[in-house]
Amino acid sequence: MSFGLGRGQPLDPGAVGLTLADLPPLPDAIGTDPLAGRLDPRAWFPHPERPLELEIGSGKGTFLLAEAARLPETNFLGIEWEHEFFAYAADRIRRAGLTNVRMLHADATEFLRWRCPDAILRVIHLYFSDPWPKSRHHRRRVVQDRFLADAARVLAPGGELRIVTDHDDYWAWMEDHFARWTAPDAEPVVGPAGGGNTDSGGSAPFTREAFDPPASAREGELVGTNFERKYRREGRPFHAATLRRR
Ligand SMILES: C[S@@+](CC[C@H](N)C(=O)[O-])C[C@H]1O[C@@H](n2cnc3c(N)ncnc32)[C@H](O)[C@@H]1O
Predict the structure, then answer these.
(1) Is the CB of 81 under 6 A from ligand 1?
(2) Which residue among the candidates 28, 33, 40, 130 is catalytic per the annotation?
(3) What does the pLDDT look like over 172-213, one tens digit per residue?
């Protein structure tokens, strides 16, 4: 599919862009050992010791460009599964000379589940995630109990899952999921092997907090992505939340 990105110029992800071909293949052993495919994305950065933030579905990369320039001592990984957007965002980041950003062409939910080690992320950003409005497509939404189990596992204590959407029905779906993952007396919703909310004794995996705009957002913006700017011009209302890992 072509989105007309790049205006006829070849896009060059350069060292910013990684694809699944750059990763070791997922071993067959993950059938019996879910940890067998884990790798450490911090090693992809010139300063692996710095804090790492993840953006899921970076689109054209506008948020990553602005936020990574503002926080040069933080590493940012953007995961985008649409190849043209992945290449476009990586090309922009390469041309901007930002060395603290990497773009991965992959399904972010699969990356979290099979590849990402425990407690390595400071923030997961999820902005204007595709709403998949038809009921039969709801299972394609990023926010699922399975995803929240993985987010709880990969976020460091105190880490944040930051979410903004314009879509009322997807927001109601998210609210139902958030309630299960923030209720102190919640029953486990993903089994122990999934790293779900299996804590007992009044310790839900997340607390719910208000969403504070990042410093890279412009006046009056929640976060400053392409979709926010487009939908704001259309006058759409937005929903936003932060879930903080206990
Ligand atoms: C509606 S766009 C929003 C883009 C950007 N966040 C913004 O606000 O402008 C959603 C993006 O997420 C990407 N995406 C959706 N699900 C994904 C997944 N599981 N892994 C990686 N990218 C995903 C889509 O390809 C698309 O570029």
Answers:
(1) yes
(2) 130
(3) 999 999 999 999 876 666 754 455 555 544 579 999 999 999
- pTM of this structure: 0.94
- Kindly compute the dihedral angle of the four CA atoms of residues 162, 22, 35, 129, in this order, to the nearest 10 degrees: 20
Question: In CATH, which superfamily holds the domain spanning 14-245?
Answer: Vaccinia Virus protein VP39 (3.40.50.150)
Ligand 1 atom 13, closest CA: 57
Residue type, 205: P
Return the ligand 1 atom nearest residue 230 CA.
9
Domain chopping of the chain, boundaries: 14-245
Q: Check if the beta carbon of residue 65 is closer than 8 Å to that of residue 98.
A: yes
Catalytic site residue 130? yes
Among residues 191, 230, 206, the alpha carbon closest in space to that of 60 is found at 230
